[in-house]
Task: inverse folding
């Protein structure tokens, strides 16, 4: 048996590097994002991943859990193919009991052993990145390259980041201390103290449809490494990526001598509302959730026994003032609006532009000019169907299509959405983004989230009004991202001030190949916890520090005035 | 003007030492607890403190706040003297608006400047420790020496501890970073990123009657140093210690060029329920509370816009199994039960003893023996009235007296409470503790908190049953402290395991001059957050990390392939 401490030794260097990275926050990544970097040293190639994916289809998913009381029908791919999977459904009482039973040994193993085990889990997940990419693609609708990167190495980087924060917090105190308090002429008071990291209890991770691994991994790994058993409740339409993850975790836990029931999958029957059932259980002391504002807010208010981390809806906003790289700005925005058909919590929705237009490359551009040029940039980016599908992926569900269908009724359509034929998956629904022109007065429309490929070009009284609107939008309705384009340092500073006031990450003048939708692990914080779109950043110390507690025991040492036996 | 950065330089060495102390958790203290260490270098002596205290009495308290809309009648001393004080009452709308207006400049000053200011506040509070001791004594009823130590230097140490944790968390990330991502043969993506600590919003501190400073300072200083304006809502019977604290804070803030409205006092009219009013305000984003389980639980459930830290009721438990220092054990327990008449959240309540008795110094002792000997130890400790009052202090309020009056009806009285005449304050109510014998079956009585000088000697089926009962008591009803006496290493280990399971700090075999009621700043954690007595430890990283957020801004740097101008 490979012990947990062997595993810690195997991965300690990586952990140390990650600990530096979370302090420095310059560029670092642990897991290669290049698709071709895989296929050797025990890692699956693109073809291996496809074969592994094909091998799990059309049968019950292989997951032996003690609480199984039936099977749940699996998901259908947004690319139109049947996956033919079923998953084991769990009896909640038995599942939670098993999780609790597994906890003391996991707690007693200590931070190093737990870190060793979770880093091994992550290493094995990394090796199967191309298999996970297929699973993410065929549940989220992401195009393959994005499913691989975001669902594979980027998600793994975020997991490692949360492990590093957790490890730093768990080990920030001495595990033992001698306390010796002077007492004047009397002998000192002397005590020995032991400090133990103890878990809160069972952790519930509620996955989402669009980023089943990326949004779930930080909470899952932070809870697990800090000693908590984790119950993973996947989105009913995106089970497979988390089922594979749970499978790997259980395999490694078992090999290292721990109960596999420290990580379990809890898929739900249609209409079961299992997230609600689990969140209300007294055993559940941590909840991580990504999804609708409605259910996120419900969780925040109705599970007081647990610490609840939520990422909810937001209204991402861009201030357009001026640019010295008009073409770069348009290309960058076109890409941001198109990537995964805007089905990202980070996609911009509202582009705020002065009614009198902007200055671009020293020339005035009217709102009509910008509208036309942005539409042209998107058309140019998505003109070729094969290239377009590689960027857009597939529409994940009917809700997105409905919102897209309604968008044209809100204002003047600057760019209509177009249906793209997928060269490989004819049944996939692929749609380009629409851009609709609104005025600042149309608050009822643009001050809510229209998740999907819907963007609004909103005319305002000027840049100052745009900045005020950005501040108000984020404060009242939340946002994960914000951006500004300006050649005027004063405008950039005023927008930064608004972003600080409202509590949102700001990207300034993105004209190259970094996009506002992207956040890089170990450098960018994803969400802030400071506005209504999320009650925590993912990942930072506040995200991990309350997942465990320190419990101490103290005893007297022999009096300080007792001379030691001469040696 | 002394700038905030000057103040940071003045106190930086102290902060650095505190930062080491919170890691090492061995003995350290910043502020002398010796009463005689004060009186020089600008600090008030005992007599100075008394004079300063006398000078504030019998008039409106000098606190100029913008929101004042009337005066609140002040408190009456548990020692029976009238203080004759009134305090300014605040209009909530105006008060919160003023607090919010003060926030941006405080945020923009940054962690070092804020740390400099709060450490100067603390230094000035320390210099006035003997004045605060009078204020704490005449509101909490603590005896002078305890009011001085717990309300003065020990509270200041806890404040410094929370400042150190906050500073460590605020500065754990780089404030700026260059991010340079390789792009194969293309030039790297290069960005510069700025990370800013931003406050959550207005922080509310709700003080308690018995430890107005000690229990309020960690939250107050953690919130302030992380950028949040703090509104202090004192207990109506313990306003003066916090009024003095707010006075000092406003003075230092003003001198350093910040708005004094970053720290305000909000005393309440009788029946106003101001804590509830404030806690429900959208502007209030942090709540720190010490008090009843009922209101603490209400806060946890009804202020979802805020992060809520509560310390509530608990049932502190001691397992008696065996000892090789019977006399030391009895003396230690007698002191713990007597200190401040048991009016501490850390005082033991339930002493669990096997029905067949214990082994002491190698001899069997029956329950009757132990009951008699414990009663004798308490009598011996409190036999002299002057010495007794110096230990007991005064009964803080009628609720304590009521509970004491009911105790005799619950079981066999092992030791009756005695009324002690106070040599200096004839109107003070001074009472010795009562010990009542119960059986493990009397769960309805001993499984709730009887705050005050009421202890139960509870007979069980044996030590194993006692340990199980400890675990159950803490899990279900909470506890701040637990203790065990045993000469058997297996019993100690089993009790440690139970303490880890239930999440409570354990003291083993205290027979000298350290008491289970005491927790030392920088070494002992006070509360754990892992059982119902408190939802957080006071102080650790989890207590501070979510009091602020990090907001980032990123911009491109010129491309990496642009050769720099030759120098």
Result:
């Amino acid at each position: 048996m490979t012990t947990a401490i062997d595993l810690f030794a195997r991965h300690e260097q990586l952990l140390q590097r990650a600990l530096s990275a979370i302090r420095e926050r310059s560029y670092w990544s642990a897991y290669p994002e290049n698709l071709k970097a895989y296929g050797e040293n025990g890692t699956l190639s693109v073809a291996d991943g496809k074969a592994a994916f094909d091998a799990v289809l059309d049968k019950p998913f292989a997951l032996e859990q003690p609480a199984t009381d039936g099977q749940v029908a699996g998901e259908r791919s947004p690319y139109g193919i049947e996956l033919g999977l079923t998953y084991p459904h769990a009896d909640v009482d038995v599942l939670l009991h098993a999780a609790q039973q597994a906890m003391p040994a996991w707690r007693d193993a200590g931070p190093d052993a737990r870190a060793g085990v979770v880093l091994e889990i992550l290493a094995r997940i990394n090796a199967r990145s191309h298999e996970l990419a297929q699973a993410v693609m065929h549940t989220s609708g992401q195009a393959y390259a994005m499913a691989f990167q975001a669902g594979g190495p980027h998600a793994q980087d975020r997991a490692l980041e949360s492990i590093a924060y957790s490890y730093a917090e768990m080990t920030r105190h001495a595990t033992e201390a001698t306390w010796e308090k002077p007492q004047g002429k009397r002998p000192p008071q002397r005590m020995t103290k032991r400090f133990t990291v103890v878990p809160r209890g069972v952790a519930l991770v509620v996955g989402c449809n669009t980023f089943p691994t990326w949004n779930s991994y930080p909470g899952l790994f932070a809870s697990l490494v800090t000693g908590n058993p984790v119950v993973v409740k996947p989105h009913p339409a995106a089970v497979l990526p988390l089922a594979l993850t749970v499978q790997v975790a259980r395999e490694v836990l078992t090999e290292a001598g721990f109960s596999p029931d420290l990580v379990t999958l809890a898929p739900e029957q249609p209409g079961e509302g299992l997230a609600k059932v689990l969140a209300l259980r007294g055993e559940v002391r941590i909840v991580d959730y990504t999804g609708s504002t409605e259910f996120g807010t419900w969780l925040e208010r109705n599970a007081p026994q647990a610490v609840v981390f939520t990422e909810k809806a937001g209204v991402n906003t861009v201030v357009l003032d001026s640019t010295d790289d008009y073409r770069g700005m348009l290309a960058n925005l076109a890409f941001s609006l198109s990537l995964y058909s805007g089905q990202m919590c980070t996609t911009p929705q509202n582009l705020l532009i002065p009614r009198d237009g902007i200055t671009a490359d020293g020339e005035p551009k009217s709102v009509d000019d910008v509208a036309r040029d942005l539409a042209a940039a998107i058309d140019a980016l998505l003109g070729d169907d094969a290239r377009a599908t590689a960027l857009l992926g597939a529409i994940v569900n009917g809700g997105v299509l409905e919102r897209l269908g309604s968008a044209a009724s809100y204002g003047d359509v600057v760019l209509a959405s177009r249906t793209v034929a997928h060269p490989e998956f004819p049944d996939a629904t692929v749609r380009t983004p629409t851009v609709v022109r609104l005025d600042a007065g149309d608050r009822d429309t643009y001050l809510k989230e229209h998740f999907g490929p819907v963007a609004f070009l909103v005319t305002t009284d000027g840049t100052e009004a745009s900045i005020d609107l950005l501040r108000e939008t984020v404060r009242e309705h939340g946002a994960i991202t914000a951006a500004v384009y300006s050649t005027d340092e004063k405008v950039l500073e005023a927008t930064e001030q608004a972003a600080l006031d409202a509590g949102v990450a700001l990207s300034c003048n993105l004209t190259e190949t970094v996009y506002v939708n992207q956040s890089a692990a170990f450098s960018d914080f994803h969400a802030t916890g400071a506005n209504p779109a999320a009650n925590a950043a993912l990942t930072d110390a506040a995200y991990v520090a309350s997942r465990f507690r320190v419990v101490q025991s103290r005893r007297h040492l022999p009096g300080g005035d007792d001379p030691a036996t001469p040696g």
